[in-house]
Specification:
Blueprint: E1 5-11, E2 17-23, E3 28-33, H1 56-88, H2 101-142, H3 154-162
Antiparallel strand pairs: 1-2, 2-3
Helix pairs in contact: 1-2, 2-3
Length: 163
C-alpha cells in the first residue's frame, strides 16, 4: 500500500511555524518547529577585555569611516583613470569606468561628509581632554578618585562618560 503525503505550512500563534505531513486522506500530524533566535552580534574591531576600554567605540568607528573613505576614493580614482585612458586610447580599446561621473561625485561628497564627521567627533574629544585633563589626571594618579565615576562630582562623572 502506497501512502501519499503533502506538506503544508502554517503560522501558528506565538510565531511558531507548523509543518503538517498530511497523509491522504487522513488528518494532519503537526510537526512544530521553534523559530531560531538570531545569532547576529554587533561588529566590533576590538575583542576581549579591550572592547570595554574608553574610546574603544570611537576607535572602531574611526577604522570603519577611514575604510569607507579609502574605498570611495579608490573607486573615484579608478573611474578617472579609466576615463583618461579612454581619451588617449583607440576606440577599440574603450573600457567603461567603474562608476559614472554623477556617482563619483556622490562618493566624493560622501567621503568629505564622513571625514568632516570624524573630525568633528575627534575635536569634541580633544576639547574635553584639554579642558578637564589638567584637573583630572593628578587626581587619578594620586588615587584621590577611582577609575569609576564619582557620583558626588558631576564634572568627573561627565568626563568618565566621555572618556
Amino acid at each position: 500500500m502506497q501512502l501519499d503525503f503533502i506538506v503544508a505550512d502554517n503560522r501558528l500563534p506565538g510565531g511558531i511555524f507548523g509543518l503538517y505531513l498530511q497523509r491522504m486522506p487522513r488528518c494532519p500530524l503537526p510537526l512544530l518547529i521553534q523559530p531560531l533566535n538570531p545569532t547576529h552580534e554587533e561588529l566590533r574591531w576590538i575583542h576581549g577585555p579591550g572592547k570595554n576600554e574608553r574610546f574603544a567605540d570611537f576607535i572602531g568607528h574611526t577604522c570603519d569611516v577611514a575604510a569607507g573613505i579609502r574605498s570611495s576614493l579608490q573607486i573615484i580614482y579608478s573611474g578617472d583613470l579609466v576615463r583618461e585612458i579612454n581619451l588617449d586610447g583607440d576606440a577599440d580599446d574603450f573600457a567603461p569606468p567603474a562608476v559614472g561621473k554623477a556617482d563619483a561625485a556622490n562618493l566624493m561628497r560622501l567621503s568629505i561628509a564622513a571625514a568632516s564627521l570624524l573630525q568633528q567627533v575627534s575635536r569634541g574629544h580633544i576639547d574635553l581632554l584639554n579642558t578637564y585633563w589638567p584637573e583630572y589626571s593628578p587626581l587619578l594618579e594620586t588615587g584621590a578618585i577611582g577609575a569609576e565615576p564619582d557620583s558626588e562630582n558631576p564634572l568627573i562623572s561627565q568626563l568618565h562618560a566621555v572618556l
